[in-house]
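Hi V.,

You were right to ask for the full record rather than a summary. Here it is.
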Amino acid sequence: MPAMAVPDDAPGDGAPARHPVVDWLTRTPLRPLLPRPCPYLPGLVARERAFRTERLDGDGYHALMDRGFRRTGDVFYAMDCAGCRRCVPLRVPVATFAPSRSQRRARRRNGDVTMTVRPPQCCEATFALYQRYLAAQHPTSAADADYAGFRASLYAEVVDTVEAVYELAGRTVAISLLDVCAQSVSAVYHFYDPDFADRSLGVHSVLAEIDWTRQIGVPHYYLGFWVEGAATMDYKAAYRPHELLVDGVWRPA
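Predicted structure:
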């Protein structure tokens, strides 16, 4: 896949300039990657367009997300599946978000859990928690997990990222990685201690992170792709009101 060197600025003509990464994408068609089995919908084939870059500022990544891109480590990708457009970016306007009854119950259940937002701190203890989470939730992936891959995919210093750490009586029970810019907070990945699976820590973390996004004055919390018909993605649509990126335009859903 192509590697990109992001220029520091773009020429201006008195009108607001598009971010250089958008201009680069306009000039540089991305070749589709090799197809692979769809991880969300059995029997379908997934394919992405992607590029790599060592560093991208928050405004640049926000501009990419508003064009359907996500990232893993230093790889920025958009879905390009033949005959299927069911991977739809979803975001929550934090000013109007209202938790449902079941979401409020999850919040009350975790009233004794504290959240600390800090610079990312990749370490062996964090990786051990991640391994335990994978073994419980995604056992086929757990066998292939290694520390170097974990660090490269979740802790690469590519965009402005923070780590939300959830603790119960001094014990770390969950961690979220969040990409942050002036217009968006994007959920990268969340993993939790399977000993506390009955606490709905995933729901609690989304609510806490939406609250934090509102507190720092950022208008939208991005939940990544929602995939209609995929059971593992149904939870994202439960955060309302939300918006979907359809044909390049954010639309209320």
